[in-house]
Amino acid sequence: MTEDLTRSTVTAQQEAIEEQKEREEERAFRAAPQLNKSPLHGLWALTNRDLVKWYKNPIQLFISLIQPIVWLGLFGKAFNITGIFASQPGVTQAELNTINLGTFGTTSYFSYLGAGMLAFIIMFTAAFAGMSVVWDRRFGFMNKALSTPVGRGAIVTGKVMQSVIRSLIQAAIVLVIAVALGMDTTNFSILTVGGSFVMLFLMTFGLSSLFVMLALRSSDWQTQMAVINLLNLPLLFASNAMLPVRIMPSWLQSVVKFNPVSYAVDGVRQLLLGSGSASAAAAGYNILAPLWVDFAVLAGFAALLSVLGIVLSWKLLTK
Hints:
The protein is mostly helical. It has one domain (37-316). It is built from 15 helices and no strands. The protein has helices spanning 2-31, 39-55, 58-78, 81-86, 93-104, 109-127, 129-138, 141-146, 152-180, 190-214, 221-237, 250-256, 260-272, 278-283, 291-316. The longest helix is centred in the first third of the chain and has 30 residues, at 2-31. The chain starts with a helix and ends with a helix. The mean pLDDT is 80.
């Protein structure tokens, strides 16, 4: 009798201990962090991954920061068209300012080129957005990302966003250097600078989407580099980034009007340099389009390329 009572007591204690353990495990499970399936969480995780690789690599970070200084400091000052006008005998400063205002929409070619350099550095940074897709595919990370709950559209958008952030940082550095080297700041304000970076954001979003889209099925970095070289220089030279449209051949002027880079540069110049002012128009300078048209073209370009990239990722981005 006593043994049966003792045995039942031990059994009851064991059951109580097991129940206590089960309750503790259930509480621990409920307290554990749940898997965040939000598209924004996955988007930021992928974007931040590429940004961390960028700013934690000292050599890559140094090159990306020194590149704008080299381009603007050496190329910008060496390519001095204003000096050609000034070297002519008998040309006064007032006449030189009138010539520059009618040709470039500002009294300094360096200021004209500085605004073009903002688009130039963004274009080359955006072109390498697709290379990240190629390397992720080659080293197997893309297969791992495709196995997660993160959507294919978020993967593509993450690649685009890291390129946009890097491009805008470099553009800000270029602008600071350009001002330090003598860029005209008469029209600078929070509104004009902010509006300019909105335009640059739209341009780099569209271009980054384009280059990522072209790399969706590529695993060969040489092919992607060939695509970059094929598109970058035509986009640059068939625009108003370096030279006014009015001095180009008539057939090239028509091409410039279909280049989204031209509208970004034109809008930035109107905002930062006042190239759309009445004085510039009176001197003979012609803007490419009204400011609202520049915004509309860039917004449509960014929306079209981003949507197209996401749609194509559903079909082309596979393991």
